[in-house]
Amino acid sequence: GKDRRVVKAQGSFNNNVGVPVTIFQADERTESAVLEIGTNHPGEIAALGRIARPDIAVLVSVGPEHLEGLGTLDGVADEEASIFRSIRSGGYAVVHHDPRILVRLHLPREKFMTFGLTSDADVHPDWIDGMRFGVRGTEFRLNLLGEWNIQNALAATAVAMLHGLPLDEIARRLADFRPPKMRMERLDLAGVTIINDAYNSNPESASRAVREFSRFPASGRRIAVIGDMGELGPTSETYHRELGRQLAESSIDLVVGVGLECRALLAELEGRKEMHGFASVDEMKTSLDGLIKTGDAVLLKGSRRVGLERIVKWMGERAA
Fold this sequence. Notes:
With 320 residues, the chain is α/β, with parallel strands linked by helices. The protein has 13 helices and 14 strands. The strands form four sheets. Strands 9-10-14-11-12-13 form a six-stranded mixed sheet, sandwiched between helices. Strands 3-4-5 form a three-stranded parallel sheet, covered by helices on one side. Strands 6-7-8 form a three-stranded antiparallel sheet. It is globular.
């Protein structure tokens, strides 16, 4: 098929300012607009949905994020599923095959498509080999890191199928896709490999990043630089400790915690893993030369407010 004229959200333009800004970028030549709708308190998605009125609403997952404002996982699910009430007449939902989502999906069966890794999803892989997988006889190959990107690719495939694109064309387009900056972005700086996943963090995405990085080939050490996970409210210590236990049992050689919330994470590593803690990225800067050596692989994972991406800038300056 031909290329479509598409307007898409920039960065995190996903709130009551960003969504209208993205919509206003469209003109009479625009064929599709891809909007990101975010939330951190009840009612935000419903309000933004009334502005967006999507033809296709996609819900990729429900996980432990924004618990400070939404309270529980069920609170997250209720809030995110509220987008379905905004779908235009004749529109569709594309959802992860997750009981927590499906029970909240009050649409006729012909009005939604499911995706997932299990065979009960409408769009699912027949086989998976690394970042290669097959869907209905067509092979897909992703130039991305992270097994969760297979889920994302399945969601994109479902949307493209609803637009009438054939599977071989969808596979070709996905093979050309490159990750946005700071989303499992691989960088090579002066003999150090950096996996920059510092765009944001929550318990689910941090756990996945650690699991993926544990398998990453490195001639030197694997170093995980973990920043605070924000907006977790009273559950923050529990989730940081949980991530700490995962890191303790992983093949990662050195863990660097950045931020005050990470003290709980580092407590789980005591006596089990080499570790360092810093209150801020700026405090860590003076120790960079001693911590990171040629041949090392470094994962950066933390919430936006921590600013771990500045480490990339400093290492680039060091390499110059």
